[in-house]
Design brief:
elongated, alpha+beta, binds flavin-adenine dinucleotide
């Protein structure tokens, strides 16, 4: 019987294997792909934003989820925080630096050297990697669990005393994170909230002809609002809708709405009155005058013209109409159709529900079975918070298991 089976070789599973193997556990790490850390390598393509140098409170405030256990998460973070993660990267030969938005990157801006050193050290500590093993089922047996895997050679059965699931979310399935575990764990009576796209673009039905002129153009220095949350930043007009930091970050609020509606303030430093003053004398050439006097992009004026064709076709524009347009520029409501498909999202919301876990992140109806990483029901924006959440929760699980063994 394997002493500890870690299933999933992303950052969360690797971190558990690293700590447990070093603590003297007999560890076997299973992954359905031919190699581990594939999504981690993909994250490396944009420089590998390992964590964020934000202060503790600010850092913790970005995490969300249904019934999210804020106090427990704070303890989890404190056990392995953003400084500890930077020290850990250094221990694998990767100095880090802080970039804009307090994002922390390895100086090499690559994931491969870190992954290589990490995997070598896990193997050197004695953990065995069992690749091409696709987890299918878990069943309790005396003193442990029977795990069923699908392998290229056929079905394979493994008996394990303790199990850690670190199966990731459901985006970028070619990296191995296909989210199929949701069905197997749900069938085993583990409560899972459906995976949903997070940190992704949203779809909008643009007016006919709009994209011919404006696809790919940014809206800079805007404030986006959804629910109670307002964020400054930049969005980009895409074929299917909008992309960009603020909309990624507002995803949690947007998904809560019956009809996802984004409000955009295109002139955050101006009041409606000030905008109105600037255009009071305008009577003709409305579109050109608005662009020039308000310094807003033509795409914004174009949206106003689609929404208020009757104003834009008037010979002489009355002040009351200008006031309507000023109000719109300060708060243009955009009804979104849906989030982009999960496959292309950077991360997932949903996952194993908190009610299914105890404080050790042990699955309540499966003693000695734990879960960590993106497969838990939390979400966070980009900026280094995702990898930090995976690494902190994995450290928490591993240290809990090690403490229990040596108690
Ligand atoms: C394009 C992109 C860029 C990103 N950039 C960043 C970034 O810069 N900073 C950041 O913080 N985050 C980033 N992320 C998110 C981050 O990579 C993930 O949150 C993180 O990898 C999740 O770690 P994990 O270990 O929980 O799961 P994963 O990394 O998804 O690993 C899960 C592992 O489980 C295996 N697995 C799944 N199902 C089975 C099964 N049934 N049987 C056996 N094995 C299975 C998979 O093969 C995989 O190896 C990015 C994500 C994407 C897609």
């Amino acid at each position: 019987m394997v002493e500890l089976a870690v299933i999933g070789g992303g950052p969360a599973g690797l971190r558990v294997a690293e700590l447990a193997a070093r603590a003297g556990f007999e560890v076997k790490l299973y992954d359905q792909k031919r190699s581990v850390g594939r999504k981690f390598l993909i994250a490396g393509k944009s420089g590998l934003n390992l964590t964020n140098a934000a202060r503790r409170d600010e850092f913790l405030s970005v995490y969300q989820g249904a019934d999210f256990p804020r106090d427990l998460w704070a303890e989890i973070f404190d056990r392995f925080d953003n400084d500890a993660l930077r020290d850990w990267a250094l221990s694998h030969g990767q100095e880090t630096f802080v970039s804009s938005g307090k994002k922390v990157f390895p100086e090499s801006m690559k994931a491969a050297p870190l992954l290589r050193s990490w995997v070598q050290s896990i193997k050197a500590a004695g953990a065995l990697f069992q690749l091409n093993h696709s987890f299918k089922e878990i069943e309790p047996v005396d003193d442990g669990y029977r795990l069923m895997f699908h392998t290229p050679e056929g079905e394979s059965e493994v008996l394990a005393k303790r199990v850690v699931f670190a199966l990731g979310g459901g985006s970028w399935s070619r990296t191995g994170s296909d989210g199929r575990w949701v069905n197997s764990l749900s069938a085993s009576g583990i409560s899972v909230s459906p995976l949903q796209s997070a940190n992704c673009g949203w779809e909008i039905e643009w007016p006919l002809g709009f994209l011919d002129e404006y696809e790919g153009q940014p809206w800079k220095n805007i404030v986006c609002k959804a629910g109670k949350l307002s964020l400054e930043g930049e969005l980009v007009i895409t074929k299917y809708g909008l992309e960009g930091g603020p909309i990624y970050r507002l995803g949690h609020e947007l998904r809560k709405m019956d009809s996802a509606t984004l409000e955009i303030d295109f002139k955050p430093t101006f009041s409606v009155e000030r905008l109105l003053q600037k255009v009071e004398s305008v009577r003709r050439n409305l579109a050109d005058e608005l662009s020039r006097r308000w310094k807003v992009q033509a795409s914004v004026v174009s949206l106003l013209a689609y929404k208020y064709p009757e104003i834009f076709t008037k010979e002489v524009v009355p002040k009351a109409d200008l006031a309507i347009l000023a109000e719109e520029v300060k708060c243009l409501e955009m009804v979104l159709q849906s989030a982009r498909p999960i496959e292309e999202a950077i991360s997932c919301a949903g996952g194993i529900r908190w009610e299914a876990l105890d404080d050790a992140l042990q699955i309540r109806n499966y003693p000695n079975v734990y879960a960590c990483g993106e497969m838990l029901d939390w979400e966070a924006p980009t900026g280094g918070y995702l990898l930090q959440g995976c690494m902190s929760s994995a450290t928490w699980v591993a240290k809990g298991i090690c403490a229990e063994k040596f108690d």
